[in-house]
Amino acid sequence: MTSKSHYQHGSRNRTGVLLINLGTPDAPTAQALRPYLKEFLSNPRVIEVPRLIWWPILHGFILPFRPKASAEKYTKIWMPEGSPLKVHTERQTKLLREMLQARLKNPPMVEYAMNIGKPSVTTVLQNMQAQGCERILVIPLFPQYAASSTAAAMDNVFMILSRMRNQPAIRTVKQYHDHPAYIAALAHNVRDYWSAHGRPDKLIISFHGTPRSSLDKGDPYHCACQKTGRLLAEALTLDANQYTVCFQSRFGKAKWLTPYTAVTLEELGKSRTQRVDVICPGFVSDCLETLEEIAIEAKSIFVQAGGKEFHYIPCLNERNDWIQALADITCSHLHGWLDNEVSEEATQLSRKLALEMGAKS
Ligand SMILES: C=CC1=C(C)c2cc3[nH]c(cc4nc(cc5[nH]c(cc1n2)c(C)c5CCC(=O)O)C(CCC(=O)O)=C4C)c(C)c3C=C
Ligand SMILES: [Fe+2]
Ligand SMILES: [Fe+2]
């Protein structure tokens, strides 16, 4: 049992919001990548192969080579302040905190943690409790639920709680793949990009893949991605031939969700498509999988196959409409936890904004 959870008479009761992202290495080096990849790929939620078979593969074939190869990729996208995933997550947390302070009379504490690496969920949860958070709303920064991302983060939270004598009350957000304000922010992002750079022949809506077997076992992720893609296309009034939903980041030899982004782009290049724009709505922050795998690798696949122009549309990152959406999602899950202290005026304003952006559910 952790000592931080000891009950003290007269403690202040606060509400907290904990944003959880996947996690990222501390540095773009093989030394930093090794423990990161080891922890990530040892999680049975991520790799569902029996341990007896997986262990020799991980330790014999992956950990001796992948850290160096991945570190080289991270080097290409590393920001002066650190890993893009961490930099954007940190900024989003600060902006959400400020937005909730503006919207609510009694705003919650807002923090973020990484499921792998730092700041760890353990440290942040203990800190929130030490600061008096008796109620914590957990929001994974994955709009589409997958067992390998969302459930892995929730497992971590509940494992930490299982060691506490005095647990906080917990609420969790499963997913927000079809939330009107999230879809509106995505649509606005694309429209802004097109106003500045013109339109493509095709919009590629690319999501992180998962093994095909996870869909067969009942993971709703594929369905959630398809719905986000369809709602985004509807908000942009695109015909079926003007967009494609596909899946990137295949890991290993097994079949993953199809169509694969790389294969789709190669085919479009071969058929001499003039211009494609790629957006990755499953990532709310730019990261290795968008800045390197899409903006660099996928671009080269398309151009080498014969395509002309490739544009990568950045993630939502610190966009105001996305922070508004995150605040809407947060507030809708805090009912009864803030003594009804929502400023009605601010809520109406943000609803009006979302409607104006023309999102459909
Ligand atoms: C958006 C949700 C994500 C799902 C679902 C997901 C599943 C998944 N990922 C791997 C393997 C790797 N993913 C890696 C990086 C990575 N993955 C996500 C998100 C999801 N992954 C993000 C945001 C990132 C980027 C992290 C960053 O630091 O920028 C990596 C590490 C990089 C590398 O070496 O390629 C691996 C490995 C599996 C196997 C999986 C589902 C089973
Ligand atoms: Fe991943
Ligand atoms: Fe589906």
From TrEMBL:
<keyword id="KW-0350">Heme biosynthesis</keyword>
<dbReference type="InterPro" id="IPR033659">
    <property type="entry name" value="Ferrochelatase_N"/>
</dbReference>
<dbReference type="InterPro" id="IPR033644">
    <property type="entry name" value="Ferrochelatase_C"/>
</dbReference>
<keyword id="KW-0627">Porphyrin biosynthesis</keyword>
<keyword id="KW-0479">Metal-binding</keyword>
<dbReference type="GO" id="GO:0006783">
    <property type="term" value="P:heme biosynthetic process"/>
</dbReference>
<comment type="function">
    <text>Catalyzes the ferrous insertion into protoporphyrin IX.</text>
</comment>
<comment type="pathway">
    <text>Porphyrin-containing compound metabolism; protoheme biosynthesis; protoheme from protoporphyrin-IX: step 1/1.</text>
</comment>
<keyword id="KW-0963">Cytoplasm</keyword>
<feature type="binding site">
    <location>
        <position position="208"/>
    </location>
    <ligand>
        <name>Fe(2+)</name>
    </ligand>
</feature>
<keyword id="KW-0408">Iron</keyword>
<dbReference type="GO" id="GO:0046872">
    <property type="term" value="F:metal ion binding"/>
</dbReference>
<protein>
    <recommendedName>
        <fullName>Ferrochelatase</fullName>
        <ecNumber>4.98.1.1</ecNumber>
    </recommendedName>
</protein>
<dbReference type="GO" id="GO:0005737">
    <property type="term" value="C:cytoplasm"/>
</dbReference>
<feature type="binding site">
    <location>
        <position position="289"/>
    </location>
    <ligand>
        <name>Fe(2+)</name>
    </ligand>
</feature>
<dbReference type="InterPro" id="IPR001015">
    <property type="entry name" value="Ferrochelatase"/>
</dbReference>
<dbReference type="Pfam" id="PF00762">
    <property type="entry name" value="Ferrochelatase"/>
</dbReference>
<dbReference type="GO" id="GO:0004325">
    <property type="term" value="F:ferrochelatase activity"/>
</dbReference>
<keyword id="KW-0456">Lyase</keyword>
<comment type="similarity">
    <text>Belongs to the ferrochelatase family.</text>
</comment>
